[in-house]
Amino acid sequence: MMPRMAMLVVGFALAAGGAAWAGTKSHSIDVTLTVPTAVSGHRIPAGDYRLSWVGDSSEVHVTFENDRKVVAQVDAKLERRAERTPDQEVISRTTKNGGQALEEVRLGGGKEALVFTVS
């Protein structure tokens, strides 16, 4: 049987490691792209997607999934805005060739937006 002090040390180490791991928060949102859209060099068909990323830093890696299948993984900036966005907004622009390019997704209920590179 393990002495009581050793059990306390092991318990503390596990709790501290869990707390450090828990500090890395994962996020996900659902978006609908109504037309085929370019996202940081990837062409994504119209449809419903789950976007997920880990952390709250300004540089994040975003995964686009459709029916649990990874469609694209791209880098984005997580920017804080001055004003709160009441509803989630998908912002895109028309490119020179007439297609759509995703510029940002404003996170509803908060002041943050995922900003993508438009080429």
What does this structure look like?
With 119 residues, the chain is of the alpha+beta class. The chain has one helix at 4-22, and strands at 26-33, 37-39, 42-44, 47-54, 59-66, 69-85, 89-94, 100-106, 110-116. The protein has one helix and nine strands, in the order H-E-E-E-E-E-E-E-E-E. It has one domain (25-116). The radius of gyration is 19 Å and the shape is globular. It starts with a helix and ends with a strand.
Helix/strand layout:
Blueprint: H1 4-22, E1 26-33, E2 37-39, E3 42-44, E4 47-54, E5 59-66, E6 69-85, E7 89-94, E8 100-106, E9 110-116
Parallel strand pairs: 2-8
Antiparallel strand pairs: 1-4, 2-3, 4-5, 5-6, 6-9, 7-8, 8-9
Short characterization:
By secondary structure, this protein is of the alpha+beta class. The chain is 16% helix and 56% strand.
